[in-house]
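User: Show me an example of a complex going from sequences to structure tokens.

Assistant: Sure. Here are the input components:
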Amino acid sequence: MKSLFYTFLSSILVLVSAVVLISSIIYLAPVDPARLTFGQRTDGGALERKQAELFLDKPLHIQMLYYLNDISPVGYGDGVRYKSKGIPYYKPFVAEYSSGVLFKIPYFRESFQSGRSVSALLIDAIPKTIILAITAMMIAIFFGVILGIIAALVKDSLLDQVILSVSVLGISVPSYVSAIILALVFGFLFRDYTGLNLQGSIFDINDIGDEVIVWKNLILPAIALGVRPLAIITQLMRSSLLDILTQDYMRTAKAKGLTFKKVVINHAVKNSLNPVFTAVTGWFASLLAGAFFVENVFNFKGVGGLTVNALINYDIPVLLGCVIFVCIVFIGINILVDYGYRIFDPKVRG
Amino acid sequence: MKLYISRYIFLFTVVLLISCGDDQSEVYNVFRYNQINHITSLDPVFAKSQNNIWATHHLFDGLVRLDDSLNVVPAIAKSWNISEDGLTYTFILQDNVKFHKNKCIDENRRVTARDVSYSLRRLISEKVNSPGSWLFTDKVDGPESFEAEDDTTFVMKLNQPFIPMMGILTMQYCSILPQECVEYYKSDFRSNPVGTGQFQFKRWEENQALFLVKNEEYFGGTNHNLDGIKTTFIPDKKIAFLELLNGNLDFVNGLESSFIHDLLTQEGDLLSKRKEALNLIKAPYLNSEYLGINMVNQPEGSPLRVKEIRQALNLGLDRKLMLTSLRNGVGKPANAGFVPSGLPSHDPLKVQGYEYNPDSALILISKAGYDSSNPLPEIELFTNKDYLDLTTFIARQWQEIGVKTKIEVLESSILRDGMRKSSVPFFRASWIADYPDAESFLCMFYSKYPAPPNYTNYSNSEYDMLYEKAIKTEDIAERYELYHQMDNILIEDAPVIFLFYDETALFFQKNISGVSGNAVNLLMVDDIKKEREIGAD
């Protein structure tokens, strides 16, 4: 119980330091984000009013404190701003218009560029990235396990060598490189045969104005993202299966007259999947991060696309929202993996 | 358990198979075009850049609008009258203009003068803080300057005469919108626009696509044959052009330097292999491309402080060669002042700018006291990466007259911020007309304006006097004469290196007709006809 409390505390610390670090880098860039919300001409004090509205006229540390106060569920203030933005809050100890401790849902502010709330932008983008990551993982597990089994069963043959060397290539090529290659080959050169688009997101509007879900736009990004985990799973599966096949109980199974098929599928494969699944959970978090580059190549409008666009426009609240999302995913999965080990692996528990 | 898993795999496969065959048969006649930048808001008070302007132009109308030849013509106002002293503008409104159908508004709700005063008061309100509020800065006293006299009479009072005002009223910022809808949707009006335009809002998948449908009850009647407009937001120009060639888009505007040789000849015509599939229209675009010299904030010993050097740099640039080699002839050499061709006041006879003349440039440089024993110090030119090829070309040209130029590439937003803070002494920039009047360009050198518009911190009392006089001069010929004098002062003082007057290149499919280029680079769909391919359904 004590360790859970410490994990929680350190997670918060990681989150706050990420926000402070990222926002200082952005704020120190010689750009005025308020200026970017205007056209080519601004006069008559509009710029100064905008800076004040976005707190950009305050010193850096004050801006950061304000922001942390906004995203924290427990904050301090009179709540007037939250009221005007429609953020529910509860201020139990003081009168209506005076400042005090208040409880609220985290307020991620609005995009500088579009004025849309960052929470809404994230709610729009996160499912797309998660669908992408899950599809990529499914592809990786499905093909990785099969290729791994094949390679293990035909160990040291030519096929095994081929699978092994291709998987080494798969591990070493970064996902954005494979993304560009896939896009060019299947989305452009062989477009007539594949029918795939060079770029595109899964939610779109068709030519008669209806909302459509274009699943085929998921194929190439998911493959691009899945290549590396696929290659790793192949190798893990191969070595783990080879390991198990030499165990004593395999010989026992064979000796009691089971067919080769039954031995491999019922006993060997089942047992060799364990290390693969442990690796998959750990990989999932970094998969979400890798999705950033892949999304950018395919113009896939998930969290990655949102982040890159926010960076270009110095849209600080959106950027910080995305950073916080990624932090939470990493922290969450790390905790899960940690506790998963504790539950399933008695060695760690001790 | 095993059974369940195989069931899910089966289901997943079926879903994948079904979704592969999504058919997109064309039931409607839809005009499809791409915009490189996302739309940030469909609320016209935030129509700060082309992406937002085009969409709000389809959705909303103002009191007046521009026709193809940049004349101010009636829209919601059917007539207007400007008082003798140039201070009171009285507009008589059409009485048959209806707002789009929407749940926030009564059916058949007509536009009244109160909507006009509400819309303009909203534009200048500090609470909204629109990027267009500068339109009326120092020109009106406050919200009470916009007054509805009765249902169809609207009165606007200025605090000083400002002749280009009618041009300002054609801008999308001044669109008329209904108060009840703004109050109903509040900040979500940006994604639920209700206006009076030829098209009304249907659906917006942000950053992906926008779909508008025809407004059947448009007050002016319609001449196009479109049922809808679909805007996509493919950020990569190359891919947008590919989509055009593949027939997935009807219209693309602008140029893409890596793609240009695959579309245009050196002279700027369509390549013969593209002529079968595409049409091209080129039109002047009210955009002046220049290199700006900060007249106040120049480093110690910078040769740009010397007028003769600035003139020599202007003379030492072969603009024609620059346009043919870099832009395949799209654009015109800026050899007649800062006000671009395409504006009626542009007159190459009265305003004669710099032609390419390296010999005179060399003479001017030696006159300024620089020679082989006292060579010119290196000049630093700041640009963003999109214009690296252009600035490199210029630097190479200047090398021939003995001027060494170092090019510094900055990120666009950093460069713009530097220009605003006067921290970049020499920079590449362009200025697009906000409204079609030479004043929209010449205001850039009025010393009482901050940066922007006065990015060069230029200050010249004679120029200021002419500017103040011009914006009060009603007589067109007299005003143009003043504009010419101002342009000639700029040529003499050379606070900028004049580069070129931009042109728009509009590419569209063969089955589209009625596309017209216009100098404010507004996509006017009024007359567009799309022939439907036989058997497309």
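The lines above are the inputs; the final block is the predicted structure for all two components together. The radius of gyration of chain A is 26 Å.
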